[in-house]
Amino acid sequence: MIRDSLRLYLVTDPDLCGEVGVVETVRRAVAGGVSMVQLRDKTATTSQRITIARALVEVLRGTGVPLIVNDDLQAAIQSGADGAHIGQSDGPPERARALLGPDRILGLSCETVERVRAAENSGVDYLGLGPVFATDSKADHERPIGFTGLAEMAAATALPTVAIGGLKQQHFAPVMAAGADGLAVVSAICGQANPQHAAARFLSGEMQ
User: I want to staple 195 with a disulfide (CB 3.0 to 4.6 A). Which of 21, 29, 107, 159 is the partner?
Assistant: First the structure.
């Protein structure tokens, strides 16, 4: 189930979504084939994230597409989202699992093979691997790992994995060939005039 959901993973960016807004961008992107959505808004308060997440829960109801909240466990819990995604600096994943409970999805970002191996029995459901390439949507990212690094990290775990970091339509096949279960994108969908068409192009294999 989780592996299938990771195939085309949308990470939202309120600035890139522009006047269309996060909620409507997500609605259109899911219509195009997005299989998981992460609400990421670094400048919002927990209260604001809860409000947006609740709106996204309604948009996604009945679609089978899980909603994940980035870096805010309380917003994930109080909004009724399907889970949360944390980074290496957000505390131990075992603690996050205890707060979320056994039924919500928990994702963890990993930048090295060592971190991937350390996460194997930590209670997380999937790993975000990257950044594959440098990206403007996350200024404080680690050194890019490329497809070679992605393959090494994917091979180091039995957990489902999703690649992230500067990925576009033309990278879909190489990401899958490297052993990841899917790829996470930000600007390749949020920054497009037609999010539905942009999402559909990933899955159809078309190129920009």
Answer: 29
Residue 109 is a catalytic residue: yes
Residue 127: what residue type?
L
Of 28, 40, 97, 201, the active-site residue reads 40
Candidates 7, 27, 49, 138; catalytic one: 138
Structural domains in the chain (count): 1
* Pairing mode of beta strands 8-11, 182-185: parallel
**Residue 138 labelled as part of a binding site:** yes
The answer on whether 109 is annotated among ligand-binding residues is yes
| Residue 168 bears catalytic tag | no
> Helix or strand or coil: residue 44?
coil
Full domain range(s) for residue 48: 2-204
61 in catalytic set:
no
Task: Give this prediction's pTM.
Answer: 0.94
**Which CATH number covers residue 117?**
3.20.20.70
* Tens-place pLDDT, residues 20-67: 999 999 999 999 999 999 999 999 999 999 999 999 999 999 999 999
Residue 125 annotated as part of some ligand binding site: no
Which residue matches tokens 């670094």? 42
